[in-house]
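Sample A.
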Amino acid sequence: MKRARRRFGQGCLALFATFAARRALLATADEARTAYPSVLLVDADGRPLKTSGLRVGETYVFHYPYVTTPCFLIDLGEAAVEAVALETRDGERYVWRGGVGPRRSVVAYSAICTHRMTHPDPAVSFITYRDGETRFRGADERPTTRSQVIYCCSEQSVYDARSGARVLGGPAPEPLATIVLNYDERADTLHAVGTRGAVLFKRFFEAFAFRLSLDYGVREVDRLVEGRSRVLPLSRYSRNAVMC
């Protein structure tokens, strides 16, 4: 009887410790978050985008938090991993909370590669989401195969779309920034409300301001998106998606 009570007590302590650790991780995630104005995601016709209208495995692009900063929106088709501990190149720790939507399968990331800031533009995209099995060299330089990855052809950086865009291979020094989404269950709609993790926007504008101004027809490349952001399939956003 005493042994059974002892085991029960140990089990309770272990459960409590797991719960406490999870709460600590989530608290850290809130501290690392950068808030931006809430923006409704809309479809090509300007109507509120429904998660039920997303094709599983399709790469979608929208702009947030600035009118020239592209992001990926992806429905993985299955619940993403929750509470993933990540770290920026500067050593800032944060936690990715997983997907949103009815199946917690919808994720969003900045589409700016953290290595050389390769990104989709109207002419071409050298960074894409690969839903199917993709072969690449992992962090240990050994060939490996994995599905549901974001692959940058510039220098073969690979990110895990299921786990907060953590780096799986290549020279990228940190995960892609997470775009924080709020899901409205009743309306089946999405709002982008902030970022979590590494933000490269200042460097991005310094490096590409002139070209961004030409590509998007704006003078202020660092103007925040207001109200809504249009979501397009990558195949409509870029004329050529490079699959290296």
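Sample B, a different protein:
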Amino acid sequence: MKNWMLTIGVLFLTLNTIQSQSVIGKWKTIDDETGEAKSIVEVYEKSGKVYGKVVEILRADHKKDICSKCSGAEKNKPILGMIIINGLKKDGDEYNGGSILDPTNGKKYKCYITLDSADKLKLRGYVGVAIMGRTQYWTRVKN
């Protein structure tokens, strides 16, 4: 009986910890084709909305890359320092209603993000409906 109660207690604490975690922080982006770490994006809140800024490029040969395929204000701007997640609002356990920019192709997509676990962020970028899109998983950077 004690083992059963201990198991329930640990499970409750684990679920509570995961739910209390925030998307705010630094995340390592992973190339979903190669599995290679690409950059560090800092996700932050400003005026009730969530944004993500590229704060580090991990591959030495890409540190000075610019967004040559972007349009508008991002055209030919350095990817380092670029805000790639824009204007997401909290909606239950999900953040949505904003966009994400893919600097490799210059395209903006609707997106939503959720915590898959305390240290894993799920991002879904899409055009039109969410089923027609691509999912990436980023890992939390430990300080």
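Observation for Sample B: Residues 2-20 form the longest helix (19 residues).
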